[in-house]
């Protein structure tokens, strides 16, 4: 079989050098004679590694000292509950911006824990093009406890590039599929969270970056393992963290630093996305209907204009080692997820195949 490129939306591919290193030290980590996953999270050697991973992430994202970085359980969806539990006191409401399926799910879950104001910003033009209401026109509530949004909608392939100005109301972002893909100004956010399995490491780990002044207001019923303050007070080790995922995330952070950090990877991501969109847009055969300024650079959905060819497309793609291109069941078509770990060679192989397939079916 030729080289395999995995376009899965998540769990997604991890960088080869990271996997090779992990394999090499799998049963004997740092001369301990044990796998890292067999060691106590409170052992000196593990804690040093854990702290280093946090320091590297802080470095990569330029996270200021007045933010805590938490290594949590429960994935992105766990945070759909944890955010209102920690930030939404009784008598207050929160604004939820909805531009796709994950932000919609976050709002639906939030309703279980308080008063949620849903703001739909998705617009469909008469020609079928999908666009968004610019943030200057969002009807935000100045008394809201926070504004929640999803800057990159993984399923829909919609990205909001500019950070919304919420006029002092804490901004909470679900960055599960965009964290570390390009530089952001962390100081513009109250909370950033991300499930690890797209751009950080394996599943089972969730990163939460929270501004310190937002700690300590959790609802009484908040489970202790979801309480940001409890996690912060215990360096994310109130209960046993996902130790192996934390270690692998640490390797990914080092890999990214060696590459030149977020700035360097952002340039590569831009080039990858441009290559794919250019082939889609220049063809009569493929289609992406998201308005250009809102197109995702991480998750690129596209449709064959003749949908009866879908099965054939996927089958032949797999024969070429181009895996997991089937679109999410709710939007159909195809989706190429091209996170940080996807090399440009993978996108090149995909567009080469797409052009060959188009010619072959004419
Ligand atoms: C994948 C994803 C989630 C869900 O993550 P889980 O870890 O499966 O709970 C939430 N939000 C976004 C934007 C995602 O891409």
Give a written overview of the molecule.
- The chain starts with a strand and ends with a helix.
- It has 2 domains: 28-258, Type I PLP-dependent aspartate aminotransferase-like (Major domain) (Aspartate Aminotransferase, domain 2); 260-360, Aspartate Aminotransferase, domain 1 (Alpha-Beta Complex), CATH 3.90.1150.
- The strands form 5 sheets. It has a 7-stranded mixed β-sheet. The chain has a 3-stranded antiparallel β-sheet with strand order 13-14-16, with helices on one face.
- 33% of the residues lie in helices and 17% in strands.
- The protein has 9 helices and 16 strands.
- The radius of gyration is 21 Å and the shape is globular.
- The protein has helices at 16-24, 44-61, 75-87, 101-110, 228-233, 243-259, 261-281, 310-319, 344-360; strands at residues 5-6, 67-72, 93-98, 115-120, 122-124, 130-132, 147-149, 152-153, 158-159, 171-174, 191-195, 206-211, 286-287, 299-304, 322-323, 334-337.
- It has 362 residues and is an alpha/beta fold.
- Helix 1 packs across helix 6 (243-259), helix 2 (44-61) crosses helix 6 (243-259) and helix 3 (75-87) packs across helix 4.
- The structure holds pyridoxal-5'-phosphate.
- Pyridoxal-5'-phosphate (PLP) binds next to helix 3.
Q: How many β strands by DSSP?
A: 16
Global mean pLDDT: 97
Low-pLDDT runs of 5+ residues are none
Shape: globular
What secondary-structure arrangement, pairings included, does this model have?
Elements: E1 5-6, H1 16-24, H2 44-61, E2 67-72, H3 75-87, E3 93-98, H4 101-110, E4 115-120, E5 122-124, E6 130-132, E7 147-149, E8 152-153, E9 158-159, E10 171-174, E11 191-195, E12 206-211, H5 228-233, H6 243-259, H7 261-281, E13 286-287, E14 299-304, H8 310-319, E15 322-323, E16 334-337, H9 344-360
Parallel strand pairs: 1-15, 3-4, 3-7, 7-10, 10-11
Antiparallel strand pairs: 2-12, 5-6, 8-9, 11-12, 13-14, 14-16
Helix pairs in contact: 1-6, 2-6, 3-4, 6-7, 7-9
């Amino acid at each position: 079989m030729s080289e395999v490129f995995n376009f899965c939306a998540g769990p997604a591919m991890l960088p080869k050098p990271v996997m090779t290193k992990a394999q090499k030290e799998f049963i004997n980590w740092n001369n301990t004679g044990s796998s890292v996953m067999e060691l106590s999270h409170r052992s000196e050697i593990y804690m040093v590694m854990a702290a280093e991973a946090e320091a590297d992430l802080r470095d990569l994202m330029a996270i200021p000292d007045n933010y805590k970085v938490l290594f949590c359980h429960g994935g992105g969806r766990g945070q759909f509950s944890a955010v209102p539990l920690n930030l939404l006191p009784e008598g207050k409401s929160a604004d939820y911006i909805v531009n796709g399926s994950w932000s919609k799910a976050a709002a639906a879950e939030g309703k279980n824990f308080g008063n949620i104001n849903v703001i739909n910003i998705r617009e469909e033009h008469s020609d079928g093009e999908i666009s968004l209401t610019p943030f200057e026109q969002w009807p935000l509530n100045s008394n809201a406890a926070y504004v929640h949004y999803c800057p990159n909608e993984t399923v829909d392939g919609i990205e909001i590039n500019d950070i919304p100005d919420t006029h002092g109301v804490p901004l909470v972002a679900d960055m599960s599929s965009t964290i570390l893909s390009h530089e952001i100004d962390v100081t513009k956010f109250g909370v950033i969270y991300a499930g690890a399995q797209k751009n950080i490491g394996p599943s089972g780990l969730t990163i939460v970056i929270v501004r310190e002044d937002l700690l300590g207001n959790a609802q009484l019923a908040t489970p202790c393992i979801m309480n940001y303050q409890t996690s912060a007070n215990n360096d994310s080790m109130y209960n046993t963290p996902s130790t192996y995922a934390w270690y692998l995330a640490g390797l990914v952070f080092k890999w990214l630093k060696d590459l030149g950090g977020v700035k360097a990877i952002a340039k590569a991501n831009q080039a990858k996305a441009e290559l794919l969109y250019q082939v889609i847009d220049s063809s009569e055969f493929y289609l992406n209907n998201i308005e250009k300024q809102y197109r995702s650079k991480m998750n690129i959905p596209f449709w064959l204009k003749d949908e009866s060819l879908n099965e054939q497309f996927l089958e032949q793609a797999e024969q070429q080692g181009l895996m997991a291109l089937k679109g999410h069941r709710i939007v159909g078509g195809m989706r190429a997820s091209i996170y940080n770990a996807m090399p440009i060679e993978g996108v090149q192989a995909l567009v080469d195949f797409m052009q060959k397939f188009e010619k072959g079916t004419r």
